[in-house]
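Proteins fold. Shown next:

***
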Amino acid sequence: MSQVDVVIPVYGRPDMLKSCLEALKAQTFTSFAITVVDDASPKGLVSENIAELCKEYEARLFVNSANSGFPKTVNRGARKCDAPFMLLLNSDVMLRPNALEVLISEMAAPDVGIAAPMLLFAENSPMGPAGKIQHVGVAFNVTATPVHIFLGWSVDNPRAVRRRDDWPCVTGACFLTRRATWRKVGGFQEVYGRGTFEDVEFCLTVRKVLGHKIVVNPEAIGEHVVGASAIGQPGGKGYDLRGNFQVFITRMRQFVEHDDYHFW
């Protein structure tokens, strides 16, 4: 049995999936299996290309009968997993070769509940400057809004690029957790519909309810084409950020602390 199950939700964009899978193929840590869940991509060439890629890279493929959104799609993939650890990975994230090895090493400490890499804006990302920091951890500002600390900073800045184990949250674009932890929390809460804030609630629950640490180790690096995995989603309106924020605050307000100033 593999030590890590990699769960990749996908909708369309077989080109991004290919880059993601190719990066996984180059990992120095090799004890992992890949599960792709296709959230009802358009029938025809797109869905066929996704299926062909899964065969090429020896990934298990499950296809939703109808478009279900990010939380449900991830949860379906997680239910198919039986390895001790699970890596949630967006199809628009390309991990560098030693990333998975670094993340799994963090799990040697029993009080670590989640380990995440540093993510950099990819060369073709429309959301930020290539090579600059997109994610090294998430904290809450004075309005209780989760914010990416050090967004756009240089990887040469020692303040930004250092391992920390006191983060309130990390992005759901890529993190490693124990399968037992995932099940205790109940996975992603599907009340968030198409998605956003389900990852924040998961992290807060791991930290505040289970009492585990959340680590970001910048020695693990990924490149993120931010938003590419969501392009073309049905409805054409993207994610309900405002509505989901209200859902999040209603459910999790007791656990939210204004703490971003601790990290700058």
